[in-house]
Design brief:
This protein is 63% helix and 0% strand. The chain is built from ten helices and no strands. By secondary structure, it is mainly α. It is globular, with a radius of gyration of 17 Å.
């Protein structure tokens, strides 16, 4: 899928200057092995808006969304596995590098989105992730949506605001609904998206809607 390669290339380019080399390799491995679905949805969302868009700028937005997702995905895996609680096991420097890699991924993603209309939503995505994880580990029903739903909405905002206008609310609804169709880990973008998804998103994005972001008709949970 062309958009997946474009998103991956932009994400990898954004981390090429990370040092030392060992950390850069770990970060790159996480990006290479990840589903590019968040980045792809950002690129596709940009095609919905009216007006000319800068392809390089859109690729940077896609990379920002992708890197934030990858960082939080790695963090979620570490929190679930809790590798640091195995007191009888020798220290694994790989675990320490993964923790640092997750921080760098999120930070780089923030940097790419800092001067865009998606900056506030990027912050809220991380905050919601923290609240959801806190609830889960306290054995409480999470009050926030899952990571994928929040990241997919971030993709709609980052891409859909490419011309400086607010992204269509119906587009945000559609992408949030898509997140409910996939588990963890996310599948490859080419396997996860329906055929002619760009046309579907363009049609959905033209629908007038209110400010509520939920699941639009036709999206199965």
């Amino acid at each position: 899928m062309e958009e997946a390669e474009q998103a991956r290339a932009a994400a990898r380019e954004a981390i090429t200057d990370v040092t030392p080399d060992g950390l850069q390799t770990v970060i790159d491995d996480h990006v290479v092995s990840s589903s590019m679905l968040p980045g792809v949805l950002t690129l596709l969302s940009a095609r919905v808006v009216d007006g000319a868009v800068d392809e390089h700028a859109i690729a940077q937005r896609a990379a920002g969304v992708q890197l934030i997702y990858d960082g939080l995905r790695v963090t979620r895996g570490l929190v679930s596995a809790e590798p640091w609680t195995a007191a009888d096991a020798p220290d694994d420097p790989g675990d320490d590098l993964d923790i640092l890699a997750a921080d760098v991924l999120v930070a780089r993603g923030f940097r790419l989105l800092a001067r865009t209309e998606a900056a506030d939503q990027a912050v809220e995505t991380v905050r919601a992730f923290g609240r959801e994880q806190t609830d889960r580990h306290a054995d409480r029903a999470p009050t926030d949506r899952c990571l994928e739903a929040n990241v997919f909405e971030l993709a709609a905002i980052a891409g859909g605001s490419a011309t400086g206008s607010d992204p269509p609310v119906a587009l945000r609804q559609y992408l949030v609904g898509l997140a409910d169709n996939h588990g963890e880990p996310l599948p490859a973008a080419a396997d996860a998206l329906p055929e002619r998804v760009a046309e579907i998103m363009a049609r959905v994005g033209s629908v007038q809607s209110d400010d509520r972001v939920g699941t639009p008709p036709g999206i199965e949970r």
